[in-house]
Design goal:
six-stranded mixed β-sheet; Zinc-binding alcohol dehydrogenase family protein; globular; six-stranded parallel β-sheet; 28% helix; single chain; alpha/beta
Length: 323
């Protein structure tokens, strides 16, 4: 089969399309024909060497949607989707014609979604669900402020919060495009602006109370504003750090507000762990309550380097490879 491979870290130019042995079916592993696989910023960071658990040489790619071609009889021919913090890092990923998937990680693709759409869901929605529902334990009616609202995770957080009767305040350099799912569920938008006290603006929009949950999908430079926007006993979810990972925190303000700071790393979720979360979210996609993020471009496997470069250049919308 053909697979995208890298044996050293660097820019997308280190990626090579190679002929490699096809994965073999075992009692524990099924083989899936990859119809679509998205390219995430974390895939680009992986190739660049920013993920310290990557084992080389490797086929990258976390998210996928495809059809089981070898495995348990009841699964053969079934359309599935998946993702994983191990996928593309410590086990070969989805940017190939075939991928080996643990039988325990096989999850039926929602029929409502095309392969391209299903391939854009994994990392973004699993990270959002893991942080908002499982870690911060969102309660219906709470206000969620989302830093990075135009990003993949931020847009997913907004939809999940809205589906659980939360009020959503989106924060970003610019508002979401009107055609995006996030735009349809926002109650308020706050633009990053040096002249605006973002934390105070969150308080103003919540009658002085602050947000019960701030989901910071940016991190680092936004952390002081995120903490300042928290309600008493509010929960700050942190998934990344842009720029310097070192942040000064007013400890007195932190403990007096009884704020909680919660770190979330979807890289710790295996393909099997992620499948369980996709199964929980599948009914929301089937009903149309959750919608995949817009697809900006699709590429063949031959053009995978260009797909990676598009993501590295912050192309608006999701980028999909069709092996």
């Amino acid at each position: 089969m053909r697979a995208l491979r890298f044996s050293e870290f660097g820019e997308p130019g280190v990626l090579r399309l190679e002929d490699v042995p096809a994965p073999e079916v075992t009692a524990e592993e099924a083989v899936v024909r990859v119809e679509s696989a998205s390219v995430n910023p974390s895939d680009v960071k992986n190739v660049a060497g920013a993920m310290d658990w990557t084992v080389l040489p490797r086929t990258p790619g976390r998210d996928f949607a495809g059809v089981v071609v070898s495995g348990p009889a009841e699964w053969e021919g079934v359309a599935v989707w998946g993702t994983g913090g191990d996928t593309g890092f410590s086990r070969d990923g989805s940017h190939a014609q075939l991928i080996s998937v643990p039988v325990a990680a096989l999850a039926p693709k929602p029929a409502r979604l095309s392969f391209d759409e299903a391939a854009t869901v994994g990392v973004n929605f699993v990270t959002a669900w893991y942080g908002l529902i499982e870690t911060a334990q969102l309660v219906a009616g709470e206000t969620v402020a989302v830093f990075g609202i135009t990003g993949g995770v931020g847009g997913a957080v907004a939809q999940i919060a809205h589906a659980h009767d939360g009020k959503v305040i989106g924060l970003g350099r610019r508002p979401p495009r009107p055609d995006t799912p996030a735009a349809a569920v926002l109650d308020h938008f706050v633009a990053y602006d040096p002249a605006v006290d973002v934390g105070a603006e969150i308080k103003r929009l919540t009658d002085g109370k602050g947000a019960q949950i701030v989901y910071d999908a940016v991190g680092g430079a936004t952390t002081p504003s995120a903490l300042a926007g928290l309600a008493r006993r509010g929960r700050l979810v942190v998934i990344s750090a842009i720029g310097s990972p070192i942040v000064e925190v007013n400890i007195r303000a932190l403990y007096r507000n009884e704020s909680r700071v919660l770190g979330v790393d979807s890289g710790k979720l295996s393909m099997i762990d992620s499948a369980r979360r996709l199964e929980r979210m599948a009914p929301y996609f089937e009903s149309g309550q959750f919608r995949p993020l817009p697809i900006a471009a699709t590429y063949s496997l031959d053009k995978a380097q260009a797909a990676y470069q598009a993501v590295a250049d912050n192309a608006g919308g999701r980028v999909v490879i069709r092996p």
